[in-house]
């Protein structure tokens, strides 16, 4: 006899929900924050600020203690697999870091 939670969702939908929750949990742990204040993939998008784009070199050097500053530093240190996971939730931020790296 199988024991489990009855659901009408397809396995792929359940996997996507678990993956999204895992990304959120992992991101909050890696950033050292208690609550994720930025939406995850599939929800309303909040764009990166012009300040963060303009001063990304300072931010990646350690300036700033706000969420996006920590996130940008995390993205800059991520290996390929984790970078792809972060790209799902924060595509614009990953693009900004990659553009900065290519222009150095």
Give a brief description.
The protein has helices spanning 11-31, 50-54, 56-60, 67-77, 80-89, 91-103.
Question: Helices, strands, pairings?
Answer:
Blueprint: H1 11-31, H2 50-54, H3 56-60, H4 67-77, H5 80-89, H6 91-103
What does the model show?
The protein contains six helices and no strands. Helix 4 (67-77) packs across helix 6 (91-103) and helix 5 (80-89) packs across helix 6 (91-103). By secondary structure, the chain is mainly alpha-helical. It has helices at 11-31, 50-54, 56-60, 67-77, 80-89, 91-103. The mean pLDDT is 77. It has one domain (11-103). The longest helix has 21 residues, at 11-31. The N and C termini lie far apart (60 Å).
Q: How many domains is the backbone divided into?
A: 1
Q: How many DSSP E strands?
A: 0
What percentage of residues falls in helices of 4 or more residues?
A: 55-70%
Distance between the termini: 60 Å
> How many individual helices?
6
Largest sheet: none
One letter per element, helices H and strands E, the order comes to: HHHHHH
Mean pLDDT: 77
> Tell me, what's the shape?
elongated
Low-pLDDT sequence parts: none
Instruction: Estimate what percentage of residues fall within beta strands.
Output: under 5%
CA gyration radius, whole angstroms: 16 Å
Derived structural class: mainly alpha
């Amino acid at each position: 006899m199988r024991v489990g939670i009855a659901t009408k969702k397809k396995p792929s939908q359940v996997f996507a929900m678990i993956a999204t929750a895992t990304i959120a949990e992992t991101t909050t742990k890696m950033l050292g924050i208690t609550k994720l204040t930025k939406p995850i993939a599939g929800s309303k998008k909040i764009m990166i600020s012009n300040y963060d784009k303009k001063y990304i070199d300072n931010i990646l050097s350690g300036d700033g203690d706000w969420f996006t500053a920590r996130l940008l530093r995390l993205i800059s240190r991520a290996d390929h697999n984790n970078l792809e996971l972060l790209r799902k939730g924060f595509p614009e931020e990953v693009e900004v870091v990659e553009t900065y790296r290519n222009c150095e």
